[in-house]
Fold these 3 entries.
Entry 1:
Amino acid sequence: MKIHEYQAKEILRRYGIPVQPGRVATTPAEAEAAAREFGVPVVVKAQVYVGGRGKAGGVKFGQTPEQTREVASAILGMDIKGLTVQKVLITPAIDIAEEYYVGIVLDRASQAPVVMVSAADPRRARPRLHRIRRHPGRDQPPRAHQGRPSARRRRQAPD
């Protein structure tokens, strides 16, 4: 299943996980209104089902509401890896202290979900992933220590 960033944030928010506020815009005027609502600066992010949006020019900053309108106008309709951008996500620009990448995939062999977490951008480097497996028939959530051995090895491994 593929979902947009704004849809993923809605799901996380529904389950009480704090996420950065954002507003979806389909027109430059809506993007400008969102920038006024959040205050500036903001980030304008193309919503397409592919990675590499930033490298393709689909993630830009708006320093003023007017500049946000211009940036959204440039991104909306843009082609990113064969997909046309029809929506942008407007979020307040923030300083990022740490960034983690999380994915959930189905392990076909065990028929169980696998949660993968990495501090490295999986599109730019071959990340060392910390896997936490949970058997679908069990009621117990993964234990906190299940990812620790990998994290310990990661700290000790020479780069």
Note: The helical segments are 5-14, 28-38, 65-75, 148-156.
Entry 2:
Amino acid sequence: MIYAIKVGYCAPISVAIRNSLSLGAFQSGLRRRAIKAMLLLCLITVAASAQTATTTTIQSSVEAATLGHAVQFTATVSPASATGKVTFFDGVNILGIEPLSAGKAIFSTSLLPAGAHSITAFYGGGNSAAASASAALALTVRSLPDFGFQDVSTSPSVVIESVHISVGDFNRDGIPDLAVTSCRCGGQEPGLIAYIIVLLGNGDGTFRTSAQIFLDGLDDFAPAIADFNGDGIPDIATASGIFLGNGDGTFQSGLPFPVKNLDGGFVSVIAADFNGDGRADIAWSGLLSGTLGGIAGVALGNGDGTFQPSLNVNLPPAGCSRWAISTAMDSPISPCSARPLCRLAP
């Protein structure tokens, strides 16, 4: 049992003691000792709220998995009366967050890449139950032998310039989906229009368009995919905002990104649990406008899709000591080339 000890001040008793002493009512040593005992009881109180220790274990539905096939992980928290959520990790990467029901939380995924994995479950505590973590579960995902690749449909061909592709199961059907960061240039809508196209997998190597998330013009080079609000549905984090998933391949309007005024472009975002509380945090980096340097930061997640203020650090120039930075934002030829480029200085 873990007890919280609070130290406080008992005003009514102290006033009564002071008034009594002023009247000379306490003359004997016995009464003086009684007063001291009363003061000690008044200053130190033990809170009745206690946390119950818990244990967390994890099991897999298979001993060895096949690439692309679903694997189910079951976390068991004892005592079974514990409430709250369990975060599943692959090493330091968050796989997903699921609620406890009768002492168990179940997470299923088919997105584990081939290779060795170390799976753990972290129970974040709840009510009077303390947090606990499981031992690591070793799991190997093997790919089947093959020779070359088959041709599949390239439809929908909606991407004009692809910048980055991320993978997630956005509609929770166990089939990998894609989030493609892209831009559209010129035409009837002049200038740079940046957006993310969400393509839902059909399970046969083809995809269908589900949603478009329009960005605010920043060059969101690499978004992060994670469950930022703990509802078990993958979300998308970009420098333009945090887009919470609805579980059907569509997304809500963007919540504010924890850093403002990023005008240098080329912003990359990753997600992980950096402080060990079972919530998805983000780290990001980008280029500073008009300079050779960059900036990076870490923002800790609150578990509801919002983040604490980012802790930032300026990065020195790297790899471009003989080069001058330039952008083509105002170029009538290629407005999509808004990303900072390095070229040999004259």
Note: The mean pLDDT is 76.
Entry 3:
Amino acid sequence: MHDMRAALTGGLLLLLSGAVHAHTWDRGDNELLKTTEWSYEGANGPAFWTSIGFPECGGRRQSPIDLDPCDATPARTLTPLTLRGFNRPPLYLEAENDAVTAVFEPVWRGSEPELRAQDRGLLDNLKLPFPGMDKLKLPLPLAGAPRVSGGGLPGTFSVFQFHLHWGANDSVGSEHTIQGRRFPLEMHIVCKNVKYRTLEEALRNVDGIAVLAVLFETTSQRASARSLSGLFSSRGIIQLTPALSRVRPLGAEAEVASPPSMLQLMPVNTNRYFSYSGSLTTPGCYEVVTWIVFAETVRVVDVELNILRSLRGNNAAPIVNNFRPAQRRNGRILRYRGGMMKGLNMGFDMGFRGLGLGLGLGCSRL
């Protein structure tokens, strides 16, 4: 399985995993350098990242931050995000326990990694989403990885990977906070600016990376929400849990048997979001990220959170509280785009996205 994943991705997805997770990424080399270990606690924790070899973690445009709608600039003229291909599930999706999180590495039909693998005949035995898809010629922009633009993003970005941050209990877990409130789970959909040919090049430029952040929360109404979800497609995170349960050991990998689309992992209403300029939230903390943090949440239930909390990292310790504390804004502009979906805003839509919850933002002017 590992050999197939390496061939499918050409090593590219693994490089980004290192850039935002467990190892140092040197922008001058085209390889991972495992020279300095870091963690979320103790002598190698976030407070010490700058002193153990990651000076950029002390920059003035660091992430995450607290998102206060009362201190945000209303951006009523900001256009909605344009999401192309987000409704298509990946051709292949693998979960990996990389010692600090669960990383998901998707490959889409027509993407560069898929075409390279196809040339080598490695996809012959993979299940396709529906019969005859292997003969389907997808026109651009449907071919390849999903792309996002608009919304004030400095270009068009293609989805690269996604990963999760969670807490030891429901009161903590997310990296971003809203008016000081932390959520039990946050997902980062990491995207690369398509104008840059390589990740190395993107990491050298302030407009190189965009991250779509999704906040999850539990709800006391989960029983009634489950009955509603039975009428429609399940929340996308449900489709990830079987693979997550198989990557409990450090370094374990597992294929997602029925991959969800990116849209199924996102809130129904993507028209409401915060946006600001920031950084990767892990070493090397490069300040090359445009953040989009959705203002509506997706529902998560106890069994899903407990599976994440059962993952094991170094020394077989549970992987929990894998989030960086909020960083100073240092005068950065935080923009907020409000707005409702067209039609009924019922927490789900006919696109079969995850049942969502609206955050009660505390400023009526927004």
Note: Confidence is low (pLDDT under 50) at residues 1-35, 114-143, 220-234, 341-357.
